[in-house]
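Example 3.2
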Amino acid sequence: MSEARLLPEQRARQRIDALLREAGWVIQDMREIDLAAARGVAVREFPTASGPTDYLLFVDSKALGTIEAKKEGETLLGVETQADRYSAGFAETVKTRPVPHVRLPLPVHYLTTGVETLFTNRLDPAPRPREVFAFHRPETLLEWAQAEHSLRARLRQIPPVSRAFLRPHQIDAIERLEESLRADRPRALVDMTMGAGKTFVAVDEAYRLLRFAGAKRLLFLVDRINLGQQAEKEFKSYVSPDDGRKFSELYNVQLLRSNRIDPASQVVITTIQRLYSVLRGQSDAEFDPATEEESFFETQTEADRDEASVPIEYRAAVPIETFDFIFTDECHRSIYGTWGQVLDYFDAFLTGLTATPSKFTYAYFNGNVVAEYSHEQSVIDGINVDYTVYRIDTEITRHGSTIEAGEWVKIRDRYSRTEALRELDDAVSYDQAKLDRAVSSPDQIRTVVRTFRDRVRTEIFPGRAEVPKTVFFCKTDAHADDVLRIVREEFGRGSDFARKITYKTQGSTLQHIQDFRTDPSFRIAVTVDQVSTGTDIKPIECLVFMRMVGSRALLEQMKGRGVRRIDDDEFWAVTPGALEQGVRKDHFVIVDCVGITDEDRAWAETKPLDRQPTVPLQRLLQDVALGAVTADLASTLGARLKRLENKLDAEDLTEFARLAGHSMRATAEALIDAAKVESAVALAGQGSGRTPRHEQIDDARLELALEATRSLTAPVRALLLELQERSEIVIDLSSQDRLISAGFVDTGEAEQIAQSFTQWIEEHHDEYAALQACFEQQPHRRRLGYEDIKALARAIERPPLNLTRERLWAAYRKLDASKVRGEGGRVLTDIVSLVRFALGADEELVPHVDVVQLRYDVWIAEQTQDGRTFSPGQARWLEMVRDHIATSMTIETEDFDLEPFVEEGGLNGAYEAFGDEIGPLLEELNASLGGA
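Structure, written as tokens:
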């Protein structure tokens, strides 16, 4: 009879019979029963005192369970009481008819439609049905039925967690995970920030489950083979807290490099790509190991998704009971869509590990979050380091560009990479989205790289002897090629200095990553995704984003490459000059070249604790003294104290604790905790039982911030400034960069920069001649020269301000663009315009060159009015003198030995043009055009 003509119940029985056969069962009718025909026999319509059960399961000729079959679509949980009825009926039957059985009541029961199957083990402490992909094998059910205690019963007998080698948050995660397992919750989520030791938690728990819960085999699932190798290293190096032996001495660990699971393995580590191939029944020859090199879930094509959508079928070589527990790493991306069927196949507890859960992650794990440990808390605990954001902005990055018709361009073939010159028939416009995908702009890349080169050791990491280990995140492999070439050119360094690490890189990607981790000469890695997630490279101090990302989770993962703290000796071994300079890894920097940190999603998960990185410590402490305290100020101060603590010796820390009444660490933690919104919500809602209003929360945040800063008395503040001065080396900086906008990003940055600058001028106006001239707003006692301006510019670029003319100019433009003219900050003398504008001496901020030009025009008009004229040759000399004063404040006779004067004959040429009037004329021009 064709399947189309079968009744629904008959179709269901056909599917059930097929599933039983696949799992190793022989199916028989009562009239032809032969229990010796196979180890596992399923007998249809076996009679009991309560009526015939659909199937009675025998293993080794002994009954141990029943199957209740229903038609497709029927609700199974609604008929689960029938299982109890047939089990009780069988118990009554054996009183008069001694049918061999394993134990009573029968321990195993299935409810199934052939599409949906529920399984119950009555030996569990609190038996309840759980959904399974297929039937278990006969020998498995017999082993479970004969065991003194079921797995779920043994989970309730695990001893307390050993605290050896574990941090408090890891202990909490393990205890809460085991609490979830005891409650028989099938899925649990461990949400711990990058670098907090999620893998170690999984390894420790695996050890406890194997040793104390009698687990047969565990699976550790990753999405890239290098993450699997890292996990294998963690498992094999784990030392038992009970007897001091290594994990690999006690249990067999297999990193799956073929499509065969070793029956002797007790921990299997594999990529989800290979496991899918195994469940598809593919051989080693049919699986391409290259797919394990990359994060398949971020780079797969539609064809790959179509391939992955092929449903998994039961595989006798890999039964559903192969694993008792599954840990899935980076579970925020490896468990969804068609790939979820890989995990749904196994009858196992599932624990997800991630630092960046999404709403889908929470839903998949049924909201069962057993551990939460944030980036902010990890910084407080000294496990991870904080970060700051440095922004590089260019015209093409922001607005794109247009290549006009008739222009010659290079056309690069995407696949062969051959290039040919072509004249454009039509104009081509491109925006940020097309940049480096459809159009490559080498000058845009060069501008960004050159800015990074000029500032990485002067402003981003002041005074460093060598470029910190840095990762450039690019859009495509081709984009990475362009970036790598320009990085090497601009830094003037060879292949050892900068290398590409992508899935197309020749050689082993894992070896390239290891080289970057350990080779002191390898300073810059250019990548797309290979170093973006999961990869543990602790010496990284700088992340340069030259691409946007498609998800907040991926952005958080990419940030995570920099958060990991590293031992000083290990850091010094791979960071040239760091030991001699006493440099430690106490933070990392995100260099944002595309505006990724301008997006709201960039800050949704982790925010830097130092919310105001451009504000000097002195200014922050002064705000504390004035009572001008905010939550952001408290967080920033906490972050500064955490960083300062790592630079001080025991004597300094003892002195701080004596004055403050608390250790520096406790003070920092209190400040950071006070800035948390949840702390304010708890305080605002205290005792009311209601959700507090926004204004109540704001009041609570202020109250917490004030309380946290109360211990920062005048003596404590003075000591902090002294300790900071001892811990830092002041470097005389001079930057030739001409970018308009490049600097650290924080809330209200422009206003903070302007306020800091004005306050600094007021506090130091007696120390610099250039400031005195502007501050006094009256004729100065001596003429200002180039060295005076240079000394002022250097002072501003040094700590505590760490400001450049360009950043100041950009800040004032951001505050009020209507009062700012031109692109200033490009020449040294623009510092005069900035000072005068800050003090209110000028109503508009105008480049000093334009100021001198205006003065020159007025002077020429006055000369003409007085009947004084100049020949074309003299006018040329006057314009050269004007331009020199504009960039040097004054002109002296020795300056005529410089360009461009020397080309016109130098001082002799000037005498030929003006005769003996040259001396008085220079004095007159200095007085009219120069000065502040």
